[in-house]
Each structure stands twice: as structure tokens, then as C-alpha cells.
Write a structure and sequence with these properties.
By secondary structure, the chain is an alpha/beta fold. The protein is 35% helix and 21% strand. It has a 6-stranded parallel beta sheet with strand order 3-2-1-4-5-6, sandwiched between helices.
Length: 141
């Protein structure tokens, strides 16, 4: 199975760290970097979490895991992932937003894996490689 991973916010500090770790440990993965400004390669996708009309690039590139490293206050990406059966990992939610997102997921018919994390900045210096190794085991990597 082809693994197409989109890291939204992949140009930021946390996103770049995720990209580096995943690419170093799993060179067979197709890693796409999403951001409002796009980028200079075919792996950079223009996507804005506040504009659902920009989400078509997710489907166009057959993304099967979204890692969100920016704050999506309206949970547009979460809703899109649930509706389109795409695995989703959000590492950016402060606790109040996490409670709201959890409620959205709880009311939805989910057929993909949805993973939330809270307090991500406080954990920035933990061993990300162990965390992502476990995530990749979940997704067959």
C-alpha cells in the first residue's frame, strides 16, 4: 500500500521536525508538506485550514494520513478527514479545543483512525522519534 502523508504546517518549527524524522526513518513514504503559501516542489501543497475549498489537494494526492501541526480552530480538517475516511493526527490542540474536537468526532461515523494530542509545545523536546515510530507502526510503516 502506498503511504501518502500530508503534514499541514510542515513549514513551521514543529512541522519541519516531523518531516525530517519521518523522511529519515521512513524514506519509502511519500511526504507532502501543506501550507498557505505552497512551496517550490511537487511535494509542497497549497492548503489553508480556514478555506475548505483548498482541501481538494488532499483527495487529488490520495493522502491517507493527515498530520496537523497548525491550529485549526474550526476543525475543518478534522471534519474533512472523517468525511473522506482519512487517518488523522492532530498535535496542536489546546485542551478546550481538544474537548470540542473530541465531541465532533464522538458524533461522527468514523471509519478511519483519529488521534488527538494536547499540550504539544510542552512536549516539543521529548523524543519525537519514538512517538513517530509508534504512529508509523499504527499505519503499517
Amino acid at each position: 500500500m502506498e503511504h501518502n502523508i500530508l503534514i499541514i504546517g510542515g513549514n513551521g518549527l514543529v512541522g519541519k521536525t516531523i518531516v525530517r524524522i519521518l523522511h529519515t526513518r521512513n524514506p519509502h513514504l511519500n511526504i507532502f508538506i501543506g501550507g498557505r503559501k505552497g512551496g517550490s516542489t511537487g511535494r509542497h501543497l497549497t492548503i489553508d485550514v480556514t478555506d475548505p475549498s483548498s482541501f481538494q489537494v488532499i483527495t487529488d494526492n490520495k493522502i491517507n494520513l493527515i498530520i496537523l501541526s497548525v491550529n485549526d480552530k474550526s476543525d475543518h480538517i478534522l471534519k474533512y478527514a472523517i468525511e473522506n475516511h482519512i487517518d488523522y493526527l492532530d498535535i496542536t490542540k489546546p485542551t478546550p479545543d481538544l474537548v470540542k474536537a473530541y465531541a465532533i468526532a464522538g458524533k461522527s461515523d468514523i471509519s478511519s483512525r483519529i488521534v488527538f494530542s494536547s499540550g504539544w509545545m510542552g512536549e516539543l523536546f521529548l523524543d519525537w522519534s519514538i512517538f513517530f515510530q509508534k504512529i508509523m507502526q499504527m499505519f503499517g510503516g
